[in-house]
Design a protein that fits this description.
The complex is a heterotrimer. Chain A is mostly helical. In chain A, 68% of the residues lie in helices and 0% in strands. Chain A has a domain of 215 residues: MetI-like fold (Orthogonal Bundle). By secondary structure, chain B is an alpha/beta fold. Chain B folds into 2 domains: 179 residues, 3-Layer(aba) Sandwich (Rossmann fold), CATH 3.40.50.300; 65 residues, no CATH class. In chain B, helix 3 packs parallel to helix 5 and helix 5 runs parallel beside helix 6. Chain B is globular, with a radius of gyration of 21 Å. Chain B starts with 5 loop residues before the first strand and ends in an 8-residue tail after the last strand. By secondary structure, chain C is an alpha/beta fold. Helix content of chain C is 35%, strand content 22%. In chain C, helix 9 links the parallel strand 8 and strand 9. In chain C, helix 5 crosses helix 6, helix 6 crosses helix 8 and helix 8 packs parallel to helix 9. The chains are: A mainly alpha, B alpha/beta, C alpha/beta.
Chain lengths: 311, 324, 336
């Protein structure tokens, strides 16, 4: 009875007869996510863009870097959207539709790779800091704070000045900086989960640290990490676009939404709105998609709502 | 039966209280502050005390989850309080812990079978078919149905979850089980079921229990001897009937008097105990019960009474023990 | 309604007699992930001025939900109360608007909970929080309210109330916080105090004090108390009458001596037999098998029959009525 609360406590579901093996959190989470219209819209946006990126060669007619129109004269290459070029062409006569679709590849690649790097570093360091505490925690927490205080833009500028710019550099640069947010969340979660009795029970059973972290702690903090990674994906894509916009990101002729927005900027007032507008819409759709999905996941996976464990 | 399965000598555990900012710990919380007792093979020692008296810390010390600040714990003659990690791992097959909260003590991401089977895996006790058989046996031993092995903790009731916790503890065939409030989170009928189960298991498997609880009825039902703990120390320890019928320490008396009646006709006007347990800032000299004790004399403010043998296994830490 | 038959006999007991609260056919559904749960399913109860009624039962039996329903504290998003009667001083609380209910709550019926820490605002001083009640309900100004607060705190046995009013909730012990909650609840001299497991989070010695305090204040202020608990010790200690609940329904109602001396319902007997103690040391307790049914998947007939050792054919098919079996002792069992 000690779990009786001031709030109306729904009597515990004692026996879920016949329910299959899959544990409730993910299944319930998916059920809740499905009911969240905004999140499903987000998922759709991300899915459509991701599919477009994967199947880019099949859904585009032109190479995104190929100059298709060689007519001389100022602005002559700027073809407005039409039957042949859905999104028009840029001043070099390249098909904007192809560039936007292939740009999705670049954005998603950077988003996924950087997120993976930051999740791997962040989860490892965060878990070590939270689990062992003491000196390990002091050092890692200090590192996290240093990274947060670090002027990121200057860091990338410095890197680009010395190293040949390119995709791998972008992954590394963003991943190196973004892990700190993940690590901070993981550290906090591990701190609270390691106090749970089931972790103590595993220790009493004689389990080694690695086993306890991998089997008992990490599976129980996965939800917030997923949420953080999804939300982070949006901001990484934004970051890449901003860097490319400033000229420090993806180097031409590789298609990049940020770069195209920057290039098209000068022609906006001249009436060639399509050059900047379509990459801009694409960024908006993808970032919005990830954010809606992330928010939905947070609500769907929140243990306070799942009723299974948090009291 | 071999005497003195467990012997605890002058055991202390101080937790540092972190100061603000960069300054490191200066103050300590003396959770366990000089505990001595012995536990014979085959007996059940009940440990009773109110929240914050250090009884859970004591359970964690004995099971090796935390290391003592001072003092020693001997299990069958060998000192387990300064063992290496690998040494501890072996001892863990002999000493197991059953937790209070059947909700928090089971990993929500593991099936009942995996939870109970984990100690078998860790200690490589049984493989494949053997493990399967052993699991089945453990499930039946605690009154669970083996066909529910694949279920997750949230699909069981509170009492069933506690059975899972008990089966997990039994998996490595321990000899001593430390039970940290194993029934206090359960409903009356589930509580009775678990008490029965623990009595049965003790008889069938020849277990020894250190049974911690705050509920006097539960302690009285299951224990052979009872130790009363107050602010990190044992203030009285005696055989059950002796403790319940002729308590010596004023705190034990207060505790027994505060216990609710069994029957409305036994309601009594009771001497009300001063409520505030002194915080960390109180004077550390003398008896720790002096501020609430209705009979305190000047001596109580000067020296801390030692746990003195009153004969017949009755020990009491009070300067005035014979004058009550 | 069985109550009307039982009423004459129910009187007598403590000689108070006047009924202050009557609940008839209370049904509360709570919304859960997969549908509605009938948490309280047709509860009748009757409370007399100045008496202590204990509602006892295990978790999920609906006792807390029943209390919250009477208080009008089931938010529309969490549950729904079916048409029923909650007659308090001649008015049916079930028909009042939220606004009208707010006027009654805290002033005429108030409630305290198990964990006082969650009911107190951690960033406001004790004095501020208690005096707020006086200001809101009695229209006093800040100084008068503070004076009343200090008086009230000393009434509930808080030492040095002048100093305590300046402290924050976390500076008080659990027992002291519960005293503060009682002070707030009783500040408007309500007719009914509903206490939901007020001592379950407290130590034994503190529990004894809080029960004593509730008893003293009840006698002094003439407040009727509904004490919700799972602990038969608390019942033995504090109750005048007892209502036993099982799976959303009342199964037995009688005065406290009757319950302990002559329990009639098999569930009540099972509960009493489950209580451990040093007098029956080491003996197996005479337990009820199994656990309470899932409220969404109730057995047909009597809700207790799957666990009942006396169950017969009719228990499986028809649900027993809650009827007077003599001298105001009500019981819902076919076998009486």
């Amino acid at each position: 009875m000690p779990t009786q609360k001031a709030k109306a406590a729904v009597p515990e579901n004692r026996e879920n007869k016949g329910k299959g093996k899959a544990y409730g959190l993910w299944r319930d989470g998916w059920a809740r996510l499905k009911e969240n219209r905004a999140a499903m819209a987000g998922l759709m946006m991300v899915a459509v863009i991701a599919l477009a990126a994967v199947f880019a060669p099949y859904i585009t007619k032109y190479d995104p870097t190929e100059q298709l129109i060689w007519t001389r004269g100022a602005k002559a290459q700027l073809v407005p959207p039409g039957r042949d070029h859905f999104f028009g062409t840029d001043i070099y006569g390249r098909d904007m539709y192809s560039r936007v679709v292939y740009g999705a590849r670049v954005s998603l690649q950077i988003g996924i790779a950087s997120t993976l790097i930051s999740v791997i570093i962040g989860v490892t360091l965060g878990a070590l800091a939270g689990y062992y505490g003491g000196l390990a925690d002091d050092i890692i927490s200090w590192l996290i704070n240093v990274v947060f205080a670090f002027p990121f833009l200057l860091f990338v500028l410095a890197l680009v000045a010395y190293l040949p710019p390119g995709l791998p550099l972008m992954y590394a640069a963003i991943g190196m900086v973004n892990w700190a947010g993940v690590a901070r969340i993981v550290r906090g979660q591990v701190l609270s989960v390691r106090e749970r009795e089931y972790v103590e029970a595993a220790m009493v059973a004689g389990g080694r640290d690695a086993r306890i972290i991998v089997k008992h702690i990490l599976p129980n903090i996965l939800a917030p990490v997923i949420v953080q990674a999804t939300l982070g994906m949006g901001s990484i894509i934004m970051l890449e676009s901003s860097l490319s916009f400033l000229g420090f990101g993806i180097q031409p002729p590789t298609p990049s939404w940020g770069y195209d927005i920057d290039q098209g900027r000068q022609y906006l007032l001249a009436g060639a709105w399509w050059w900047s507008a379509f990459p801009g819409l694409a960024i908006m759709a993808l970032v919005l998609g990830f954010n809606l999905l992330g928010d939905g996941l947070r609500d769907a996976l929140d243990p306070r709502q799942s009723g299974g464990e948090g009291r | 039966m071999q005497a003195n399965m467990l012997e605890v000598k002058n055991l202390k555990k101080y937790f540092p209280v972190k100061g603000l900012g960069f300054l490191r710990a200066k103050a300590f919380i003396k959770a366990v502050d000089g505990v001595d007792f012995t536990l014979d093979a085959g007996e059940t020692l009940g440990l009773v005390g109110e929240s914050g008296c250090g009884k859970s810390t004591l359970a964690r010390l004995i099971t090796g989850l935390i290391r003592p600040t001072e003092g020693h714990i001997y299990f069958e003659g060998s000192n387990i309080s300064d063992m290496t990690r690998s040494g501890l791992r072996r001892v863990r097959r002999d000493i197991q812990l059953v937790f209070q909260d059947p909700y928090a003590s089971l990993n929500p991401r593991m099936t009942a079978g995996d939870i109970i089977g984990e100690p078998l895996k860790i200690h490589r006790l049984a493989r494949d078919q053997d493990r399967e058989d052993r699991l089945r046996e453990l499930f039946e031993l605690v009154g669970l149905e083996p066909r529910h092995m694949g279920r997750y903790p949230h699909q069981f009731s509170g009492g069933q979850r506690q059975r899972i916790g008990i089966a997990r503890a039994l998996a490595v065939s321990p000899r001593l089980i430390v039970c940290d409030e194993p029934v206090s989170a359960l409903d009356v009928s589930a509580q009775a079921q678990i008490i029965n189960l623990m009595l049965d298991l003790k008889q069938r498997l020849g277990l020894t229990y250190l049974f911690i609880a705050h509920h006097l009825g539960v302690i009285g039902h299951i224990s052979d001897r009872v130790a009363v703990m107050y602010m990190g120390r044992i203030v009285e320890i005696a055989y059950r009937d002796r403790l319940f019928d002729s308590p010596m320490h004023p705190y034990t008396k207060a505790l027994l008097s505060a216990a609710p009646a069994d029957h409305p006709k036994q309601r009594k006007e009771r001497s009300i105990l001063a409520e505030e347990v002194p915080g960390p800032g109180h004077s550390e000299v003398g008896c720790r019960y002096k501020n609430r004790c209705p009979r305190a004399v000047p001596l109580c403010g000067e020296t801390e009474p030692a746990l003195v043998d009153l004969g017949e296994g009755h020990f009491c830490a009070c300067h005035l023990r014979y004058e009550w | 309604m069985p109550w009307t038959q039982g009423k004459a006999a129910v009187k007598g007991g403590e000689g108070m007699g006047e009924t202050i609260l009557t609940v008839r056919g209370l049904k509360t559904y709570l919304y859960a992930k997969d549908g509605m749960v009938p948490a309280v399913d047709g509860l009748d109860l009757q409370l007399e001025r100045g008496e202590t009624l204990c509602i006892v039962g295990e978790s999920g039996c609906g006792k807390s939900t029943a209390a919250l329903s009477i208080m009008g504290l089931i938010p529309a998003s969490e549950g729904r109360i079916e048409q029923c009667e909650i007659i308090f001083k001649g008015r049916n609380l079930a028909n009042l608007s939220r606004e009208e209910m707010r006027g009654i709550r805290g002033r005429e019926i108030s409630m305290i909970f198990q964990e006082p820490m969650t009911s107190l605002n951690p960033v406001l001083t004790i004095g501020r929080q208690v005096s707020e009640v006086f200001m809101a309900h009695r229209g006093l100004n800040r100084n008068e309210a503070m004076k009343e607060t200090i008086q009230m705190l000393s009434l509930v046995g808080i030492p040095e109330p002048e100093r305590r009013v300046r402290e924050y909730p976390h500076q008080l012990s659990g027992g002291m916080r519960q005293r503060v909650m009682i002070a707030m609840a009783l500040s408007c001299r309500p007719d009914v105090l509903i206490a939901d497991e007020p001592t379950s989070a407290l130590d034994v010695t503190v529990q004894a004090q809080i029960l004593q305090l509730i008893k003293e204040l009840k006698d002094r202020l003439g407040t009727a108390v509904i004490l919700i608990t799972h602990d038969l010790g608390v019942v033995a200690e504090a109750a005048q009458r007892v209502l036993v609940m099982y799976a959303g329904r009342a199964v037995e109602y009688c005065d406290v001596n009757g319950l302990f001396d002559n329990p009639r319902h098999p569930y009540t007997r099972g509960l009493l037999a489950s209580v451990p103690g040093h007098r029956n040391h080491g003996q197996r307790l005479d337990v009820m098998d199994g656990s309470a049914p899932n409220l969404r998947d109730l057995p047909g007939g009597c809700r207790f029959y799957p666990r009942c050792r006396y169950a017969r054919g009719m228990c499986r098919t028809s649900e027993p009525e809650f009827v007077d079996i003599g001298e105001g002792h009500l019981c819902a069992c076919h076998l009486i």
